[in-house]
Every structure is written in structure tokens, then in C-alpha cells.
Design goal:
Elements (H helix, E strand, L loop, with lengths): L1 H68 L3 H14 L4 H15 L3 H12 L6 H18 L2 H8 L10 H14 L3 H13 L5 H16 L4
Helix pairs in contact: 1-2, 1-3, 2-3, 3-4, 4-5, 5-6, 5-7, 6-7, 7-8, 8-9
Length: 219
């Protein structure tokens, strides 16, 4: 009988302790549970929104490229500007780069170079993309600028370790040749030929230009 009594006392004490703990911490536990549910729901909702926004930006970019390929440069520029202002992820930057190309397509070569220069000067952009912008500006200037203009953009890309060196050298060589400086263009084209890592089509063009320049009597 004494064992039964003690068991009942112990049970009542445990119940009283549990009731006290629940009275003290129960509301906090409920609040934490509600916060966890709300946070999880908020994250799922944000992830859904971000995914949809990224997909929409991708679709807008594809549509802008299609417009540009059809020669609808004004419509393409408007679409790219909207994407630059409201897009997410990498699409605003891609829109900036493509906008510069569309400007060149429209015949606004000064505007195109300025747009590429702005990307190249933006320290918030990865260096690889900034280098691509420098190269694109230089390529526009081959036909619409001086050798000095081209060199100021692509000169830093001429290092032997730079992956864009082949195209940078071609831009420099073509610019020198078009400026009536074949003696300066020849060694740059030769650099391309001597670089075994240069792409095959670029080496073919360099070979043709070396033969052309040497055929004119330049050694």
C-alpha cells in the first residue's frame, strides 16, 4: 500500500512539474513553432518567386535576341533596356552587353563603344566579362577608330596567359594594317601563327594576311 501511495505522489509531482513547465514555456514553444512554419513558407514562396522571375528574364532575353536577329533593332533595344532595369540574376549584365551590340548593329558605333567601355570599367563585374567588353569595343574600333583606340582596349589582353589574346592580336594586327602600317601588322599576325593554342580559323586568317603583306614587299 505504501508503494502505491508513493507512486501516486510521484505521478502527481511529475504532472505538477509538467504543468508548471508548460505554463512557463508553452507559449514560447508555440510561438517558435509558428515562426518556423512561417519562415519555411516564406522561403518556399521566395524561391518560387525567384525562379519565376529568372525564367521570365530568360524568356525576355531570348525574345530580345530574336528581335535583334530579325533586324528589329529598336524593339530589341527597348526589350533589353527593360531587362537591364527589371531583370534578375545575370540577365541585366547580359542585356547591357547585348545592348552595345545592338547599337553597333544600328550603326551607332560611338554609342556601342561607350556601352562596352562602361561594362569594362565597372569593378562590380567579373574580370572575364570586363575583358570581353574590352575586346568587343576593340573589334568595333577596328573599322571605326584608330590603332591607338584599338590598342587602348585590347592591349592589356595581349598577354601570353590571357585566353582572349588571339582575338586581341587579330584586332591589333587588322587595325595596324587598315591604318597603312603593314610593317607593324606583320609581326602581330606572326604571333598568332607561332601560338599553337590559337584557334584554327584564326590561324588561317593570319596565314592569309601574312602572305598578303609579304607579297606586297614587306619583310
Amino acid at each position: 500500500m505504501s508503494d502505491t501511495f508513493f507512486r501516486e505522489v510521484n505521478q502527481e509531482m511529475r504532472q505538477a512539474q509538467a504543468q508548471a513547465l508548460w505554463t512557463r514555456f508553452g507559449p514560447i514553444a508555440i510561438l517558435l513553432a509558428v515562426l518556423i512554419v512561417l519562415a519555411t513558407g516564406g522561403w518556399v514562396l521566395y524561391d518560387w518567386w525567384s525562379t519565376n522571375k529568372a525564367n521570365a528574364s530568360g524568356d525576355q532575353f531570348s525574345q530580345a535576341l530574336q528581335l535583334a536577329s530579325e533586324g528589329k533593332t529598336d524593339e530589341a533595344a527597348a526589350a533589353l533596356q527593360t531587362l537591364e532595369d527589371d531583370g534578375v540574376g545575370a540577365y541585366p549584365l547580359l542585356a547591357r552587353l547585348r545592348m552595345a551590340t545592338v547599337l553597333a548593329q544600328k550603326g551607332d558605333f560611338n554609342g556601342a563603344v561607350a556601352a562596352f567601355d562602361q561594362v569594362a570599367a565597372d569593378n562590380a563585374i567579373p574580370q572575364g566579362l570586363r575583358d570581353i567588353a574590352k575586346l568587343r569595343a576593340g573589334l568595333v574600333l577596328v573599322d571605326h577608330g584608330s590603332f591607338a583606340d584599338v590598342e587602348s582596349r585590347v592591349g592589356p589582353l595581349n598577354a601570353d596567359t590571357n585566353p582572349l589574346r588571339h582575338s586581341a592580336r587579330e584586332a591589333l594586327a587588322l587595325s595596324a594594317w587598315k591604318e597603312g602600317r603593314p610593317a607593324d601588322a606583320l609581326p602581330i599576325f606572326q604571333q598568332i601563327l607561332d601560338d599553337q593554342a590559337a584557334p584554327g580559323n584564326l590561324r588561317q586568317r593570319a596565314t592569309m594576311m601574312v602572305e598578303l603583306i609579304r607579297g606586297s614587299g614587306v619583310k
